[in-house]
Amino acid sequence: MPATVEIHGEPWIGKTRLLQQVLETARLQGWAVAHAAAGPTASSSPYQLFSDAFEEILSERAEAVLEAVPVAHQRVLGLVFPALERKSQPGTAPSPPTVPAGAVGSALRQALRELAGPNGLVLALDDIHWADPASLDLLESLVRRPPNVRLLILVAHRNRQSSLRLRGLLASVPGSHRVGLGPLPEHELAALLPKGMARPLRKTLLARAGGNPGLLLALSDSPGSYEGTAPDGSGPAPFTRLLDEFRAVSDDGWLAAQSAAVLGDKFTLQEMRSVAALPTERLVSAITELLREDIIRICGKADVDAYRFRHPILRETVYHTTGDEWRLAAHSAATQLMRLPAPSTYPALEPMPSRTSVADQVRSRLLPRESGHFLADETRHYGQRVRTGKALVVAGRPREALDILDRTSRPGTDVPLIVRAEAAEWRAWAQRLLGRHALAESLLETMRAEVADEPEALALVELARLAVVLERGNLPDSEPPALRWADGQRDPLARAYTWALLGAQEADSGRTGQAAGRLLEVADLLDGLEDITLVGRLDALYWLARAEARLERNTEAVRHFERGLGIAAAYELEYLIPQFATGLAEVCLRLGRVDLAIESGRQAIRAADRIGGDCLMAEAGAGLARALWISGDQATARSTARRAAEQAEAWREPWADRVRLSLLEMSFDTGDQELCKGLVSFGTVRRAATFPIITLVPAVGEVLARLESQWSGSDAEAGRWATVAEEAAGRLQLPGATGLALLARAHHQRSADPLTAAAFASSAVVTLTRAGRLLDVARAHLAAAAAWTVVDPAVAHSQLNEARLLLDGCGAHGYLERTAGLAPSGTRQSVDDRLTRLSGREREISVLVSDGYTNQQIARALQLSHKTVETHLGRIFKKLKVVSRAQVATSIGRSTRITDSQFSDRPAVSGGPDRTA
Known about the structure:
Number of strands: 8
Helix content: 55-70%
Strand order of the largest sheet: 2-3-4-1-5
């Protein structure tokens, strides 16, 4: 009996390939085969699909078939299948459109008895969602009244593009089989790629393919095209094989698709009308067509008025088929719908008036012109490119921006230097968003020589270059001359932007005092400006908040990060959202606000994903992974960390090393040995020794001291990193940095001298508490507990309880789970019980002893006699059951290496102890 098999799945998922494999197997087993794929209905004749399917087999066996069927059926078959056509008298036979499906079905059933033979016949109909109505009628006739032969009917289609009638027919066929194809596992998908392909590119293509083999093959045909750079001028799309998706699309549908591709990942009917310039009725019809062909889809139930392409690569394919002039004109029209950071201050870049609508100009493929002579006006043409490219960068579309801005690299002699400088600045911005900081720095370096004679243009380029260098993770060779230019500016935003960048440079280089004074001035300027004014240079607020975070001014940093993020979201400044959200997540995590850190981290991930830059994705992913692990979501944290590691894998930049160091700590904490070893193999630890950002060195030293001590077991290396952290903390004179240096030394001493390690860890608790770093305080308590476990289990219990209280209050369930295995066994008397026996004066003296002060210094500080101090100290020794000043320091929980200068409320004592770092 005949059987029907339905194969369905997403486009490019492998339906056609599966059909071909089945047909090859059938041929080897002796089956007869008839096969065809449907095409767009508009180009099809009635019964076209069946006519194509049986063309070859009927050509070979025409005589046998005609002898096997009655004469009446011969005439019907001859009208549908050209291979069986017989000469007939003119006008005696009906034309093909009038042949009813019932008659064709009866005739075909007769022919199938001959064609199937003893071995049977396989009828394979591909892309049946495109089949003409007559072919669907004939298919229904065959499956409702199947011939009594050995027949296998295979149909392949896309569910979304199939009519209700087709889906209902296939679902109602008795005994039919449904085969749904889904994404391939990564190892099967990877086998389709060339063996010599570089690993980072390989991973990128696999990620973009999403398990879809057809999509992967399209990407691998043009592996460089995934970066999104357009070809010069018009030409074939980089993913040429995907153009077949549009063969059923009308001219209006194609124009609508091109307009949508220019608008971006998400677009509305109103936006498309502004670019496509089609009458509403025709535009609605075109959108309906694109929806029917599954080229575009409705964004979702919550946003039914917005559309998106089925896959970003479809959009890229359409985008790159547009010519250079059309694309610029279309972007100019779309730019009217975007919010630029501010109206340009340069006349050449002002919006250009036109006597006709922008939409009409786009439709006629003309560049915007003024009084009919714009094409000859090189400056205006150049300025339009800059303004359009700037709008695309602001909208978070750097690859498309480069399509426009890269054509500004060779300006004419009439283009003002300030306009050239702005073009270079926004080209560099686009490259920064894609993680290509070296390229951005190089093009700005080139432009610096070209504009050297124009102070304003030179300042613009210098500041843009400084931003690139700092974001990259380096320090500039010298202070840019832009400071002198900024001092003479009346615009407070221009001064604030310049000083914010210089303050960030000073903070990164460890000049904390100088940076603090400058940032106070910047904060006063920016806090006094309205949000709408800040839109023009919102990155000034970012650099302020970033520098404040480096100086441990966490409250101010959070306030400025939150304000900047709010402004960027409200004014759709997509290019700055990842930076603000990632910075906010980092500071919130430092302060123990885990929930807000996760929320901000996810916002950064979403924004970075829309932009598509490895740097933004990796930095946001590393921060989010750590926050997720701290919250207790280890599975999501691991997957997020691995993805961030893959995104940073191809880069040998300081920012990538920062990402890897963050992931190294998290992978060590989560026990992900594979990721941990992979990160170490990159040479991250080796390069960390020359880490240029001084304000980050104590944190780096603490992480690596812990890893060397607890994972590698190398006390010497742990001690080296602790020394690095101490030296940096000594330069910075910041409580958080000092606390991390103390914690690094505690890690170093843990195995060799637990009591000394406990003293350092307890000192770190005090210093980090003053810095407001709650999670680091909890980590210091845990380090103290680990050290005390082998000395005094009761004290270890006390330290664990302190850590648990802090972690529970922060929602840090990941750390809480770790504390379960740290509980020591033992019943020695708690030192806390002994501390309660001290009088107020004895506690004061004990604190100063723990800070390393001599009896004479204590006497001067507390205005007591030297003899009185000795008496109090003897009582302290007796009550605490200790015999040395070091043991007093351990019991009190302060190190002999912390000095009065870290505590503003401590009376200054001349000749105090030496600083630790």
